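Q&A log
Question type: sequence-to-structure
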Amino acid sequence: MDKKNVIQTVPQLKSMVAALTQLLEVQEKVVSGQSEDLKKNLGALQESREKYRELVETTGDWVWEVDEKGAYTYASPQVRDQIGYTPEEVLGKTPFDFMPPKEAARVGETFMKIVTSQQPFSSLENANLHKDGRIVILETSGVPVFRQDGQFGGYRGIDRDITERKRAEEEIHKAHQGIMEHDRFLQRLIDTIPNPIFYKDKNGIYIGCNTAFEGYIGLSKDQLIGKSVYDIAPKDLADIYYATDRKLLDNHGLQTYESRVKYADGSIHDVIFNKATFTDLEGNVDGLVGVIVDITGRKQAEAELKKYSVTLEDMVTERTKELREAQEQLVTKEKLAVLGKLAGGVGHELRNPLGAIKNAAYFLNMVLENPEPDVKETLEIMTREVARSEDILSSLLDFARPTVLTIRKVRINDVIAEAVARNPIPENITLTRTLDDTLPDIMADPDKLLQVFTNLITNACQAMPGGGTLAVTTMSPAEDRVSVSVRDTGTGITEEHMKRLFEPLFSTKAKGIGLGLVVTKAIVEAHQGSIDVRSEAGKGTTFTVTLPVGIKGGS
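Response status: OK
Response body:
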């Protein structure tokens, strides 16, 4: 190139370089701007991924992904909380690898249908084996995943642990079934009670009764339900019944009163109405239950007793001073005779209403979930006093009827052990037992002997209210006899009381009726044995029962 051409070319080159430089600067600005936008987009994307990861890893559910073959490609950390495995342990495996065989087959069949449809699914329940061996119930939901080319790539979803929920549902179901069975049992139980029982709602409408009440009213249960007293009784009586029911429902609690009523067969009876309110789950009065106790027989017995007592008083008044002692003995014998008659008659009459009261208290305890304190205390008093009354009646019946023994071979030490077991010893009393294991078996009635030693142990404990020592000893005083002694370190028995110790109706206890030792002595003598008492006031008492090995005339 000649010099002229070079001179002409240089300005052109300068111009091109300047233009190129300007172009590069513009390009650099564009690239720089694109980089900034790219950085912002990447930052936003990274922030979004971080938020997604934080959400996945902090939720209580297990998030997962599986490929088109069902193998896990992702598992969130919650998999450890739900089935005990780490995410690394489940990757590459299928959900069916963590299920019992039968469950895997069932769920697998369902899952294949889902995969074929490539549709979302939810609330698929399945049982899984936890790493520690227990069963975990999971609720699975998922959506299909498609690759960029549109091909099906698997599922993404979550598993939620519903084990406790399923267990609670099962418990609720069982409880519901139990309540229904309990209601049927209560109705059957109430139907066996001989006393008429009825229930009304808070408006005084009959909602149920037992079989005895059907006979009393002359209507079946189905005919009675839905009716009021005005539908089944004359208006004057219905007014009285309605007023007493309303008073009870307005004031809550218990209600007891006597009345004379006409049964469906036309007979007139003296009865006691025992009523009590019951509440709904919120504690609001929802109705009342009533028990009718027929006391006609008791009233008649009381009238006869009163008449006989007047006769006795007239007889005693007419006696002279010289015959006073004989008269007192006669009165005692007459009282015992009356007691024997009453024990056989009135005793059974009283047991029925006591049983009804006891069952009514039990029924109220069952239906009153959160009774008022005074109601709860009243029911406890009722139950306790019924038990005490039953004990008194048992003593009366034992006293009245002759002692009949069922003889068989008995180990006396076994009877003592059972008597001690049936009598909880107070904490402030120390029990010592010295039992001779070489004692021969005796021929006796074990149930009657159990009654004897239970009574003696109970008396010994009651004689030591401030605590002390209770010693029970068995031994053989002779080759053909065995003896049992029950010794306490209690208050002892005075000489005056010792003379009357086995006298019927004599008792030093505030709540005793004076028949326990009488029955005890009768049982021992029926075994051809003897009972000896030694005591000193303030130092304690020892009862010793001696029994023959074999009863004469017995088998």
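Response note: The longest helix spans residues 3-58.
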